[in-house]
Amino acid sequence: MFERIVVGTDGSDTAAEAVRQAVELARATGGSLDVVSAYEPVSAQRLREEATEVPPDLAHTVGPREEVNAILEAAAGAAKAAGVEVRAHAREGDPADAILDVAEETRASLIVVGNKGMTGARRFLLGSVPNKISHHAPCGVYIVRTT
Q: What global pTM score does this model have?
C-alpha cells in the first residue's frame, strides 16, 4: 500500500509523534521510510566566528547541518529499531519544500506530517508546513494529530 513514506522532523515532540506514526505505517505495510529535516543557511562569517569559540579539534563540527544530522540520526534509529528500512535527508532551506522535494525524488506514496498550528482559535488553519504540503504534495498526505 505505502511503499515509500516521507516524514519531516525538526526534532520537536510533535514531530517525534509524526515520525513514530510514520514508522508504524511503514512497518505495518512493509514500506520504507525517508526522514527529512531542513536547516537554515548560515553565513560563512558566522560559521568562522562560531568555530573560534570551540576547541580546535571540534571546530569541524560547527555548521548548520550538525543539529539536523543529530535529529535525523535519532529518527532513523527509531525506524531501524522497528525493522524499517530508512534513509535520512538533510536539506538546506524551507522545511515544506525539503519534504516535497524528497517526496518527488523518491516517488513517495505518502507524506506524513504533524498538525502543528491547528489548535485553539486557529483550528481551521494548518501550520505553514502541513498547509503547504497538503496543497502541493505529489502523493497522499497523512496529517497526524500531534497537539
A: 0.80
